[in-house]
Structure formats: C-alpha cells, structure tokens
Amino acid sequence: MKNTPALNFELAQGLTHGLVGANGVGKTTLLRMMAGQFPSMGLRVFGEEPFDNQRVMDRTILMGIDNPLFDGWNVKKLFRIGQVRWKTWNQDRADELVDAFELPVQNYSSLSRGQKSAMGFIFAVASGCELMLLDEPYLGLDVQRRQVFFDVMREEQGTRTIVVSTHHLSEIEGYLDTILLLSDEPLSGPIDEIVDSIVAVSGHASQLDRALGRLQLPVLARESSTLADRAIIDARPKFAQCVFDQAKDLGLRAQEVTLEEAVLALGEA
C-alpha cells in the first residue's frame, strides 16, 4: 500500500460497500488484511485482529482476479475443497450458479478470464461466509453474465456483508450502500450523503468566479470550454443548498454529479 494517510472507517455489517481508488493505492492489500492474509495495525474484523485468526477467517472469503483458485484442479474438485473448508458451504447454490453462468465444468486453468471471474464469484457466494470480499469480481464477464452477476449480488444483499473493489462505479453504484475511497484524503460514508454534497456548477466564467468567491468552498475540479466554465464543488457536510441558491441567484446551472464523477473528483483533489 502506498503512503496513504491512516484510515479511519467502519463498514457496517449487512451492507454492501464499494472500495475505490487509483491503481496501486492499496485496495487489494486492504482486502487481504481484512481476510487475515496480511498483518495489519489496528484493523478489526468481527471485533478481532484478523491476521491468521481462524475465527475471523472461517467467516470471511476473498475472491478476485488477484486471488485465483488452483490451476491444476477442475471445478468439481474445487467445490469439494470448499465443502471441506467452510461449514457454511452450500453446494446446491454452487450448482445453481454454475448453470446460471453457463460455466463449463473443466480445469480451472483452461477457463477464460471471464469464466475465472465467474468461478471466483460462485465460490464466494457458495461459501456462505458472512463477510464476502470481492476484488474486481466481474473482469472479463460478457454483458449477459455481467447481468447474472448483478442479479446474484442483489439476491445476496442483506444476507451478509459485501465489500467490492471496483473501477466501474457507473455499473455497480445502484448496488452499493457506502463508499470507501482510498486516496491522499481517504473518505468513507453512505453513497447518498456523498452524492448529495458534491455539486457541479456551470455558466459564464465571471459569474462562476463570483459564486465561488461567495461560497468559499473547496473546488475539486474546474474545466473551461467555449460555451461555459464548470466547477465541481465539495459542499460537505451541509452546504449543498447554499451552492444551489448561489447558482440560481447568479444565473448559473447547478446539479448533482454521478457517484463516479464525485469519487473521481474527490480522489484527485
């Protein structure tokens, strides 16, 4: 993990959390710490230090592109390993998802990248673990199977705690309850609070300058075009209405941004 400032966050149980940040910022490392694979300082999972802690690891699974299964084993043998490893393993669920993803029952090494993603996700769901950590879980999935992934995600929500590391917020934001952003200034919180507090204001440059001068709020990004200037403003925690009021008063246009745009702006600010 890069020299990211100390994190202070809590991921509530039973919710679905998005883990986001630039490449190399430490998302996979954090997931591995949560899964008990790496030592950590101060991290607690189920109230305990997770590293090499059997009580935590029996309730947790991490799957994703950087956590592959065994290449030399076929799908059925991998499922048998799952049955031995987790008392909560649900083979009926695994079989159901193999059919849903149309996954060929063959050696893991011969599966395509998308099929390996599907297999990892099936493994995570069938494990029955209370904490399901998914690292870029749908890389390589085609449109049809990506929809299967999202349908299954929806079915699993509320039955366990899910943490998803992703670069594709536009696709998954409707399935997330909170965001944990790893950046120079880490951020975590409910999605609606974040989206409601990041506002884009656009209009004539001079009027936009006046509005920004009055508001004295952080400007996360600004761009200019022949038609208008546009600024993305951090109005947290409770100044979004002030931004909308100032925009209206000065003939500017104000609107909420998408989660993806908000996270990108916050991550680069």
TrEMBL record:
Domain of life (superkingdom): Bacteria
Segments forming domain AAA+ ATPase: 13-186
Recorded GO MF terms: ATP binding; ATP hydrolysis activity
Keywords noted in UniProt: ATP-binding, Nucleotide-binding
Identification of the protein by name: ATP-binding cassette domain-containing protein
